[in-house]
Amino acid sequence: MAEAVAVQEELRSRVDLVGPGPSAPATVAGLDVAYAESGDLLAAAVTVLDTRTLEVVDRAVSVGRPAFAYVPGLFAFRELPALLAALDRLATRPELLVCDGHGLAHPRRFGLACHLGVVTDLPSIGVGKTPLVGVWTPPQAERGAWSPLRDGDEVVGRVLRTRSGVKPVFVSVGHRVSLDNAVAQVLALTPRHRLPETTRTADRLCRDALATATRR
DNA sequence: GCGACAG
DNA sequence: ATCTTGTCGC
């Protein structure tokens, strides 16, 4: 487990925090993982959406075993293998990865989104539903409002309101994307729901894959 | 020492 | 993450 931390400290030097990343990507990928109640089986899914129509144009899944125990801060080691396997099965090359979890908003500034970005060398961002690190003040109630997510004296992300009057999401940079662009991409992916269409479609796909794998 | 703690 | 019912609102 100490080795995992060492790996993060080593790889974090490869993170590109400047970006700014694609301003108008043609395709964006969503990644998510579902677990069986038994906890010994999981399904990872990647869906690639056409950013203009938000329709799924490519998809891939990977069923396997959790590669690591769930430890906050080392979360990537648990899902990364399966997610990479799913990414390898994609027929297309997405221009941006939208991860279900954090990027820089991590105790060592190397969350899942950073890890996935560095390993694939693809632009990536993290969109978390709940915080891992940082303090913030609630953003205004209107969609698009945000407030900085601060950890110590660093701004590690933004608390973004994707739907008026609904609980905000936590956006942070993963790799090769600027924070401004990360927020712009998330808003483009949330025309009607709190979570990006990318994570919603990936979530449905991995749940279906898990159900299929379980009943066999 | 006692909590908090992505999914 | 997963286990869970009804309910309020667009």
From TrEMBL:
Q: Where in the cell is it found?
A: Cytoplasm
Q: Which residues bind Mg(2+)?
A: D32, D100
Keyword entries, A-Z: Cytoplasm, DNA damage, DNA repair, Endonuclease, Hydrolase, Magnesium, Metal-binding, Nuclease
Q: Which residues does the UniProt site feature Interaction with target DNA point to?
A: Y70
Q: Which InterPro entries match?
A: Endonuclease-V
Would I find ATP-binding among this entry's keywords?
A: no
Q: Which PANTHER family match?
A: ENDONUCLEASE V
This chain's function reads:
DNA repair enzyme involved in the repair of deaminated bases. Selectively cleaves double-stranded DNA at the second phosphodiester bond 3' to a deoxyinosine leaving behind the intact lesion on the nicked DNA.
Per its record, how is this protein called by name? Endonuclease V
Quote the gene name from the UniProt entry.
Answer: nfi
